[in-house]
Amino acid sequence: MKSLDEFVELFAEQFDETDASEITATTVFHDLEEWSSLIGLSVIAMVDEEFDVALKGDDVKNSVTVEDLYNNVKSKL
Amino acid sequence: MDVAYNPFSLEGKTILVTGASSGIGKATAIECSRMGAKVVITGRNEERLNETFNSLEGDGHIQILADLSNEDDIQHLVNEIPVLNGCVNNAGYNIMSVIQFIKKDNLDHIMNVNLTAPIMLTHLLVKSKKIAKDSSIVFTSSISARGRNSVGNSMYSATKGGLSSFMKNAALELAAKRIRCNAVLPGMVETPLKEGKSNITEEQWEINRQLYPLKRFGKPEEIAYGIIYLLSDASAWVTGTELVIDGGMTR
Ligand SMILES: NC(=O)c1ccc[n+]([C@@H]2O[C@H](COP(=O)([O-])OP(=O)(O)OC[C@H]3O[C@@H](n4cnc5c(N)ncnc54)[C@H](OP(=O)(O)O)[C@@H]3O)[C@@H](O)[C@H]2O)c1
């Protein structure tokens, strides 16, 4: 299982305009200016590829911080 | 008034419907039987295909299991069926992926089911003369073939764009055999296909519904009625056409 730090890094990779330094475990990601449904789909695909976990749109919607999402992924392993 | 007058009747026609175990194909098979056709239905899931079979009106219908991603199954299907007057190439599915995460296996599979299978089925029907003169082939394409794009939908759009293009070329070629080819292009329809898009939340679906001028998604029968028009002699002078049925979305 990848660590929270590694997850944050992979999460940040899905953004093009937002600098990785702006994204930490406690970031409320829905508030990021660049956040969009396309990035949401990219995050779901990244989690599928890296963790072999199929997230639903609701999992992303209901997570507030990046760490929340990481914990959600962990709970599905 | 002649109560039996019905230019859309399918009386006397034998019609194959693929993807008949669910959604649009199921509604199409049932409505075709109600219009007097003998239907041959096919799908992969035995239980759900049987459910459709039991909902058909009249008798003489046939059900055949086939996985259309498998060439041998397509050949077997063609061997088993009687000569057709109509064929609805409807089986298909959607898998969402953003471009940087596309997997070759997924791409190959969706291409096989959504595009290669209808092409090969058409090929085999014509080659083995299992499709009569003056018959009609209908393809279930999508408004995504007409530039109604959305993120994560690129592989699916590619299959449907290919399908619409194939249909138009087939219409030209098969006109010599008096076989007509047309497509229906549905907008979003309330079917189990939606459940394959589990990365979309109910909230997003609702926003999407409101984008349609008629403020809702379609019902499977509403696509079936368009398919019936294209199968019936009412459309005898129509070939190579894309019939958009989308609640006004792409107007
Ligand atoms: N729903 C929409 O919003 C929408 C919009 C535009 C176009 N369309 C198109 O309409 C068609 C029907 O979709 P639907 O919404 O009715 O979907 P659906 O309810 O999910 O039904 C899909 C049908 O295709 C069959 N199928 C899938 N893969 C197959 C395979 N490998 N071999 C044989 N059969 C297979 C399924 O059979 P089994 O379940 O038995 O495997 C099922 O009968 C598709 O071509 C779809 O792309 C749908």
- Flag low-confidence runs of chain B: none
Order of helices and strands of chain A: HHHH
Q: How many structurally independent domains of chain B?
A: 1
Helix content of chain B: 25-40%
Strand content of chain B: 15-25%
What fraction of the residues of chain A are assigned to beta strands by DSSP? under 5%
Question: How does CATH name the architecture of chain A?
Answer: Orthogonal Bundle
Unreliable sequence segments of chain A: none
* CATH level-1 class of chain B: Alpha Beta
> How many domains of chain A, as an integer?
1
Helical coverage of chain A, percent range: 40-55%
Name of the CATH first level of chain A: Mainly Alpha
Classification by helices and strands of chain B: alpha/beta
What hetero molecules are in the model?
A: NADP nicotinamide-adenine-dinucleotide phosphate
